[in-house]
Write a structure and sequence with these properties.
The chain is mainly α. The protein is built from seven helices and four strands; from the N terminus they run H-H-E-E-H-E-E-H-H-H-H. The strands form two sheets. It has a two-stranded antiparallel ribbon.
Length: 196
């Protein structure tokens, strides 16, 4: 019952984030404008620099038009530069990507972008206190703990123990810095809950 409440196929339709067209591919998500905004906000929140509005343009996406339809769909396939920079601008390249430039000119979508971005930062911070890490840092640490032992045991790895530890520490620090940066930037841009 709980899993049904979190079924992405149902939630995506209810929230008008995407739809699934079996002609395109079973289970393949086709983003709506709302979904595109939320997805881009999430990419920018995690500092994904190779995403839809990333540094290299839309080189990791296919443009597809189903037979007999007038509307094209964007299909993403590669996003591998997340968590690279805690100070990555929250509006990075939104003004140079033609599709997002148009979407961000629509007040409803612009408001959705910044509201959802702020909500993501607030959610990532959940549970944080002076003695406890927040939700995002907790998940980052969990994932790091799952991978460190096999990585250090790999006889043909390309990194030294010191390099592995340095990168692990950068990942752990990412969450706190990114959350604060995003909250302050959204506050500065929107005038809502600005940082001191």
């Amino acid at each position: 019952e709980e899993a049904k409440k979190r079924d992405h196929r149902v939630l995506g339709k209810q929230l008008r984030l995407f739809h699934i067209d079996e002609m395109v591919g079973q289970g393949l998500i086709l983003w709506t404008p709302n979904g595109s905004i939320v997805r881009q906000e999430l990419q920018n929140f995690i500092s994904e620099q190779d995403g839809f509005t990333g540094r290299w343009g839309t080189n990791n996406f296919y443009l597809f038009r189903p037979k007999g339809k007038d509307q094209h769909r964007v299909i993403a396939w590669d996003e591998d530069l997340s968590f690279a920079d805690p100070d990555y601008p929250v509006t990075a390249f939104l003004d140079t990507n033609a599709l997002f430039q148009k979407l961000m000119q629509v007040p409803e979508y612009r408001a959705l972008y910044f509201t959802t971005l702020r909500d993501a930062a607030d959610s990532a911070e959940l549970g944080a206190s002076q003695s406890t890490v927040g939700a995002l840092e907790s998940e980052i640490r969990r994932q790091l703990d799952l991978t460190v032992e096999p990585m250090l045991a790999d006889p043909v790895r390309l990194w030294t123990d010191g390099e592995v530890e340095r990168e692990r520490n950068l990942m752990k620090a990412f969450a706190t810095r990114r959350i604060r940066f995003v909250q302050c930037e959204v506050g500065r841009i929107t005038g809502v809950r600005p940082c001191n």
